[in-house]
Structures are given as C-alpha cells and as structure tokens.
Write a structure and sequence with these properties.
single chain; 329 residues; mainly alpha; CBS-domain; Tetracycline Repressor, domain 2; 2 domains; 3-stranded mixed beta sheet; two-stranded antiparallel ribbon; 12 helices; 64% helix
Length: 329
C-alpha cells in the first residue's frame, strides 16, 4: 500500500479519500507484539482506532479495536479477538456511499479493499468532511442549483434585481393564490354567517396545516440530501403519513376537548377537530410532492416550493374545513 496509488482513482471515490498509514497485524501475532509495534511506530500511523488483520497475501481477514488490544491478556493471539464480519468498500465506491456505510454500521473508519486485499482506510475525519460537503451539494442539487448554474456562492453577493427576479414570480403566485382562497371562502358564506365562530378558527386551521407541512418539507429535503440512494418515495410518504396520522389525531382530540370546555359547544368543537385532522393529513402529500415535482421539472424548489406549497395547502385547508362544516352543521 502506498499513498501515491490514490491518484489512480476518481476524486469522489473511496480510493482517493483513503489513507494507507494504518496499523496492520497477522492473525498469529500476540497482542503483546501488536502493542509493542504500536508504541514503537505510532508516529507512522494516521489512526490507531482499529488494527487491520491480514494474511500473507495481504488479504483482509479481520479487524480489532484498539480497546481490545489493550483490554485482553497480552498472550492472546490476534485471531482470538478479531472480528471477521467486515464492512468494506472498493476503491471505486462513491464517497457518499462510504459515508452511508459508516453511519449505518456506526463505524469510525471504512477499510478499502480490492479483490480482498486491503489498500487503505477512509478515516472518521474524512467521513465527516465528506458528509458535510455532500450534504451541501445535495441540498443545492435538490434545489436545482449546480456549480454550472450558481453564479454566486455567497447570497450576499447576489445583485439586488437578480434576487428580486428569482423570488418575485413565486410571491405573485402566492398573492393570487391568497385572493383565490378568499374567493373560495365566499362560496361558504352561508355556513359562515350561520356559525360566525367558524371564521374565528380559520387562522388556526391554516396555521396548523402549514406548520405540519413545513416540518415534513424540511425533513424531506434533509433526508433526500443524506439518504437519496436508500429510501423509496412511496415508503417515505407512507412513513410520514403514519406519523402525521398520529399527530393529527392527538391535535384534533386535544382541540375538541379544550374548545368544548371553553365554548361549551361539544358538537361544534368536534366538527372543527375533525377538520383539523383531515387538513393535517392533507399536508403530507402537498409538502412532499410539490418540491419533488418542481425538482423533476428542473425548477428551483428553493424559491418555489415554499410559496407554492403554502398557498396550495392554505386553499386546500380552507376547502376541507368549510366542506366538513357544511356537511356536519
């Protein structure tokens, strides 16, 4: 193993990120021998968290932690304490997959092997650095921004008019969407006039659905950035739906109890509680599908998903709320 060989691999691969300065041992060696070598040559190693066990052909056959080396009796042999169930990467494995391996298996380092032979190890500091860089790049990529399209790395350096031009169209959509929501409320004028207190709860309905939608959207962007190679969109929606179902149930029950105690109208409180339940449930699809569709269409969700998802959710919440009220009151 030599550090010079790293240049033969792609810049975003495990081979480029690895180090060959790691402690090695043979299965038949005693822990005393390994410990002695670590003390004598510690300056040569970049890490001593793990000792990598190889056979005569340099095939990786096991790994032992530094804790085990110092914990077990010195006369024990390495093969008696080493772990043989190994998590490894090839030198051509994408660096982001290396990070996923480390996170999934709670490892401080990932050995890089080729045809069984150990070439080096991707260390924890590299893993953290890659994680931070990949997260930043994936967030930009998800937002429809790449280095080819991103003229200004620093938001403060974006020209004033360009910043306005990027954001204004989506705000105009939100403006007319708000006008549309007001028009929709006009269709429910009769039920509102008969139960004025319904208008009192409108901001609460809209706020709760927007809050849940914002939470889901934020989590979705984060998870897409970190785990985009692992999760299924259908399974993800089903998982978020299950979580939101319980949240909606708890919020609707708490509201119905509190409102009935304050306003002494159990049935009206129940109606609003049911509306809260269904508006929160509706937030799942809006919060996930709108940014995902904008991304697929090549539009920048960084500017568009917030305003568009919010106004759609507001309109849908108003329709659900007053439709339920019209049916039940």
């Amino acid at each position: 193993m030599t550090e010079n060989n790293k240049e033969n691999y792609p810049s975003d691969s495990a081979g480029r990120q690895m180090t060959a300065k790691i402690p090695l041992a043979k299965p038949e060696e005693t822990l005393f021998d390994v410990e002695k070598r670590l003390r004598e040559r510690k300056a040569e190693y970049e890490t001593i968290n793990y000792i990598y066990v190889i056979d005569d052909r340099e095939i990786l056959v096991g790994v032992a932690s530094i804790k085990d080396i110092f914990r077990w009796p010195k006369e024990k042999r390495v093969k008696e304490i080493m772990k043989t169930k190994l998590v490894t990467a090839s030198p051509f494995t994408d660096q982001e997959k290396v990070v996923n391996l480390a996170l999934a298996h709670n490892l401080k380092a990932i050995p890089v092997v080729e045809t069984g032979r150990i070439l080096g190890v991707v260390l924890s500091d590299k893993i953290i650095s890659i994680l931070n860089r990949e997260f930043h790049e994936d967030i930009l990529h998800f937002s429809g921004i790449s280095k080819a399209r991103l003229e200004y790395e620093n938001t403060l350096s974006v020209p004033l008019l360009q910043g306005v031009r990027h954001r204004l169209p989506w705000l105009i959509i939100g403006l007319f969407g708000g006008i549309g929501a007001a028009q929709i409320m006009g269709f429910f004028e009769k039920i509102i006039s008969q139960n004025l207190i319904l208008a009192f709860f409108t901001p609460l309905i809209v706020y709760l659905s927007d809050a849940v939608g914002t939470q889901i959207q934020t989590i979705f962007v984060r998870d897409l950035a970190i785990r985009n190679h692992i999760f299924s969109l259908k399974r993800y929606i089903a998982k978020q739906f299950s979580i939101t179902f319980l949240l909606a149930l708890i919020c609707s029950i708490l509201f119905s109890i509190a409102a009935s105690l304050i306003w002494q109208d159990f049935y009206l409180s129940l109606v609003v509680g049911i509306a809260i339940f269904f508006t929160l449930i509706s937030a799942v699809l809006i919060a996930i599908l709108i940014p995902f569709l904008l991304f697929r269409l090549g539009t920048d969700p960084a500017f568009g998903s917030g305003p568009s998802a919010t106004i759609l959710q507001d309109i849908l919440s108003v329709v659900i709320y007053f439709s339920i009220a019209s049916l039940m009151l």
